[in-house]
Amino acid sequence: MNILKNTVFIRKFILILICGCLWVECSSAASVSSQTRSKKKSVKREVTAQAAYAFDYTHRKVLYSRNAHVKFHPASTVKLLTALVVLDHKKRSDRVVVRQQAVHVEPTKAGLHRGVSYSVEDLLKVMLAASANDAAVALAQGVSGSEKAFAVLMNRKAKALGLRDSTFTNPTGLPDERQVTSAYDLALVVRVAMNNAFIASVMRKKSVAISGSDGSRIQKFNHNKLLWRLSYPRVLGKTGYTRAARHCYAGVAFYEDRKVAVVILKSRKPWADIYKILGVPSRRSK
Q1: pTM here?
Q2: Taking a C-beta distance cutoff of 8 angstroms, is the pair 266, 49 a contact?
Q3: The domain that contains 64 carries what CATH number?
Q4: Mean pLDDT of each 10-residue bin along the chain, 286 residues long
Q5: For 166, phi and psi rounded to 5 degrees?
Q6: What is the number of domains present in the chain?
Q7: DSSP notation for 70-118
């Protein structure tokens, strides 16, 4: 009888012990889950961009989203689409003669010379790396004769890429109330752009140098400060800024096992926003 009582007691004790362990484990998991949700909310509050979108292309997973389909001005991030349109219609070895309109466009400029010819490749380099508006206008004129005609090609390309929130009116990103896009749409553009070997190679360079038919040489630094500040993940992308658009960025973070698109629009602190969205400390090096 005593043995039976002891057996029952032991079974009850073991059952209580198991239940206690399960309660602790569940509580711990709930705490971790709560902390994760709290951390995500904290990141969202800290990001200054009015729209942002991060998408893991490799695992097809949205990592961050804020106003992803709301329309904003793209500033110079639009030059990624400009480059894709140019490469659809011109060979990189083709040459373009710079006209007066390109020379007198608003800054930022590379300092191209009127009447001088440059290769399409060189113009794309300073446009993508140094955000040269004179190069963007020269390329648009070289392809279509005018910025207006080039915008037709831009919108046609946008539709082919599946963009639904965008309307484009110029190749530079200079202010125009009608020119708008979304963080989601730019993520589609930057994916295609960074899959282009030439565009990706330009975006990796900290500086680019070009030469004209008159023998002049121009060297410009890349506007993407992450090339200096962040060694891992490697983030390649296009910057943009106007007073109306504020700071914008469209790029791809390259990890060892995945690629992540990161887009921000109308940001007050673009580099800090990108660090927070990607979850890496400021100025991290591998």
Answers
A1: 0.85
A2: yes
A3: 3.40.710.10
A4: 48 52 45 46 78 97 98 98 98 98 96 98 98 98 98 98 98 97 98 98 98 97 97 97 97 97 98 96 59
A5: -115, 145
A6: 1
A7: S-B--GGGGHHHHHHHHHHH--TT-EEEPPHHHHTSPSS---PPTT-EE
